[in-house]
Amino acid sequence: MHVNPVVEVLTGDFDGDLSVAFADFFLFADHFGETSSSPDWSPLFDLAANSTIDFEDFFIFADHFGEKAAP
User: Nearest CA to 46 among 37, 36, 38?
Assistant: First the structure.
């Protein structure tokens, strides 16, 4: 029998360390204000999926700040 592990995805965990913390905020801040036509565009930071990294994305990030994946 093969069991596939369940991987918890945390909204706002941009660095993949299983927590939403200041390191993620700094990554987010580096992309704030970008649009899908920006040279450094990354859809990873467009949490609202509206082709702009703006306050709507920041509020989504803030709602998840401090979360950690279950051990």
Answer: 36
pLDDT band at 1 (very low <50, low <70, confident <90, very high): confident
Q: Count of CB atoms within 10 A of residue 28's CB?
A: 20
pLDDT digits (tens, 9 = 90+) for 4-36: 666 678 999 999 999 999 999 999 999 999 999
DSSP character for 38?
S
Residue tagged 């450094």 (tokens): 40
User: In this structure, what are the phi and psi dihedrals at residue 68, rounded to the nearest 5 degrees?
Assistant: -135, 145
Identify the DSSP state of 45. G
C-alpha 6, offset from chain centre: 19
> Rounded to 5 degrees, what are φ and ψ at 63?
-65, -25
